[in-house]
Amino acid sequence: MATSLSAPPSEVHASGAKGLIKTFGVAAVITVLIWAVVLFNAGAAALWVCVILTALEVTFSFDNAVVN
After folding, report:
1. Are 6 and 12 in contact, with CB atoms under 8 Å apart?
2. CB of 36 closer than 8 Å to CB of 27
3. How far apart are CA 67 and CA 15, in angstroms?
4. pLDDT over 90 (residue 44)
């Protein structure tokens, strides 16, 4: 009788989500808090610029990781 070494899909999905939250949760919370500070101190236009710059930083970080 063959045994499967992999976990059922529901367990894999649950542990994957927990792993992502554990890895990126603090960074995501800090990012949202910074966006809130920018919104309240500088307005919606500055928030939009901040969100775009955040997206660019994430994109360039992934690109750099692929190159390395």
Report:
1. yes
2. no
3. 28
4. yes
Q: What is the pLDDT of residue 8?
A: 59
Tokens describing residue 33: 């808090």
Token pair for residue 29?
Answer: 């919370």
Written as six digits, the tokens of 60 are 């360039």
Give the CA distances from residue 51 to residues 8, 33, 47, in Å, rounded to whole numbers and listed in that order.
Answer: 37, 12, 6
Residues sharing a CB contact under 8 Å with residue 64, sequence separation 6 or more, in sequence order: none
Q: Residue holding tokens 């920018």? A: 38
Confidence of residue 66 (pLDDT cuts 50, 70, 90): confident
Look at the pTM and tell me if it is higher than 0.85.
no
| The amino acid at 38 | V
